[in-house]
Amino acid sequence: MAKAAGPAAVRERVRTFALGLPGTVEEFPWGESVIKVNKKVFVFLGIDDGDRPCGVTLKLKDPAAHAHALTLPGAKPAGYGLGRSGWVQVPLAEPDAPPADLLCDWAEESYRLIAPKKLIAELDGG
Q: Which residues of 11-47 are buried (b: 16+ CB within 10 A; e: fewer)?
């Protein structure tokens, strides 16, 4: 069985995936990496300083994905009231942290909730 990627590698894979989506940019408000589309955040990647545990925060409106995310070890609704809007904070340093592929799927879901229709059509090959 293959060894799972470490938290920093998983975080970087999600970051690279998210930045590959149409019209995305990375910014660093509050010293924290966020990926935006149309000036709106769709993935929070936190601060990559080695002092804080790696994690990602994504907006999940699909009931099954949202429920699944909240069953992960250490996962919780995002702070500052974002949890009420479907945002979930997922730590990556937990032993049963989700694989990068699943987090990339969730990053795409979060993107689709926020991106303009024109960019979603571009993503879908239209």
A: bbbbbebbeebeebeeeeeeeebbbbbeeebbbbbbe
